[in-house]
């Protein structure tokens, strides 16, 4: 491998330019800015390293870019990334232009560099290095780039159904990101939580009224508050009937892994200005709840007059709330949405509507899958340390649709993120060194996965 690793070192500047070019192209999915241009750029980057690449339009959505390169081994490695990014606002908090992709103080600063273009480009660079040094790759690779991850991957499940023959068979899938934890160790994640995001809404009269009418006219804000009060108790137990039925207890192996996974409680509390964790949790119990328990969160409530200052005595006629539930294996987001409906009906709230805004199934890969071993070996060789392998991370993504539902093991890659990467926030960044190591890690992974 040393020849390929040396080549990557010799080509640092060119690879840094590649990530800068990708980050300089805005691709904000929620505002539909630069999406088509970014898809074209992905295709040309893939073609630039010898892949057969195609932009597949998605009706009512953003295109998926597929690329494929053949190698001598029968193994096929899928690589999933997304080319869309979050909006850069608030702009005044950035230290440099979000789409300038400045390299400063050893870091690349740009919207999307850590989430997720740095990883996307690093993987293309790893292919570039292999081809230039050895002439061909050791295995088959298929790139799957979507443009809607930051808006909930709305169309990805349908894409998988309609294009299953084009993305299977595969022996494994490297997930979008990867990076280091607070202790500087690379963390590999073998799963993701799911999400069920709903909107509750209730309307009483057909117009707002003078609040003196509250004597005889119902108030939708109260209806909503009373309904929400039945969702969860003060001990954080979700009271929606059947909510926990499919929650899998962590296995002994998972609990052992968690025991060894560092989590700096004091630093977390200090960073976020808190005195203690929810329910006073600490130690192993805290980690288990964080990783293996689902949530039910009121993300926002809207009704009546909320302007700062001022006074308006009004009886509102509508109220709504957005609720997200982060799900764990084997909860099903659509089933959970039906449970919410049944719960509201049972408790006398059939006047409250439920709309499913986003649904993603939780996903989990066996910790001893060969792909996990291959990524761990790549981290050892490049970083010189043992990675931290975690069964699941608390975020969400379309891993179930793209991997578990079609029997493809999946794990995050030897990526370049860090705990201070500020994804979704101003001053998103990636260390140049981590980016280069991410390229090297992928290059080693190709060799290791071709062998197993
Ligand atoms: Zn994101």
Question: What does this protein structure show overall?
Answer:
The protein has 452 residues and is an alpha/beta fold. It has two domains: 2-190 and 365-451, Zn peptidases (Aminopeptidase, 3-Layer(aba) Sandwich); 193-247 and 293-360, 2-Layer Sandwich (Alpha-Beta Plaits), CATH 3.30.70.360. Helices cover 35% and strands 22% of the residues. The protein has helices at 2-10, 12-24, 35-48, 113-134, 156-162, 164-167, 220-229, 252-260, 265-271, 283-292, 333-346, 370-383, 399-402, 432-451; strands at residues 52-56, 64-69, 76-82, 102-104, 107-109, 140-146, 172-175, 179-180, 186-189, 191-203, 209-210, 297-303, 314-315, 318-327, 353-360, 363-364, 388-390, 393-396, 410-412, 429-431. The strands form five sheets. Strands 1-2-6-3-7-19 form a six-stranded mixed sheet, covered by helices on one side. Strands 10, 12, 14, 15, 16 and 18 form a six-stranded mixed sheet that branches. It has a three-stranded antiparallel sheet with strand order 4-5-20. The structure holds zinc ion. The site of zinc ion has 5 residues, from loops.
